[in-house]
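Board notes (copied after class):
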Amino acid sequence: MEIKARRKGNIIILDLCGRIDVNAANFIEVVGQCIRDGYLDMLCNFSEVDFIDYMGISVVVIAYKEVLNNNGRIKFCDIPVHLKNLFSVTGLDKVVDIYATQDLAINSFREDRVIENIKRLQLRRRFKRLPIDIKIELKDKYSKSISPIKLDILNLSAVGAYIYGCDKFKLGDEVVLSLKLGPKQEEVQLEAKVVWLCDKQIQPHLHPGMGIEFCNIPGCVQEKLVEFIERNLSFMSTDE
């Protein structure tokens, strides 16, 4: 089987040509290389595939699992009529997203991102935000030579925070912050990504500052944040 790779934005399109059978292990190799190169959205174009047997289906399934195991997405398009029955009999059409045309498939990747953003926003709204001044230490995730910066968090949720007094980072930078949660002053370290920067012209009272979103946060740590936030919010309600 011949495979030609081309790119459409962040999507890698694999044009498959020939037979997918026991000799099509190069499909798995190409998919693995795409993952190593950082392409996690893949579209396989089957329009020039002549033949697939059950061993070929196994090859396709291995490649599919490889993408999923690396948190990627793989979709198929332009399946020839004479091959659709095999996809149906093996149940592969119920596992993999299959589209009639390349354009429909590419649009589906964009729609997936919109849905993911909506879900992320809904997740944020599920968690309450606590307006509070907490001292923290912040450092670049990948720099070992630079000392942590002492800053203030002005509001905190279980999925992110607003950090005041810092203009040393840009959008997308990954950071690690350390803070202490009362009443036991237990120190917590959190990985995060910069997702928003304060605009001096629009919000001069908050500048300099940035919004961060926590990444790879363990469930037990998130529970501690939720408990800390709920406890302090209840104190505020009582004071009122």
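Comment from the instructor: The mean pLDDT is 87. Helices lie at 26-36, 54-69, 81-89, 102-126, 219-239.
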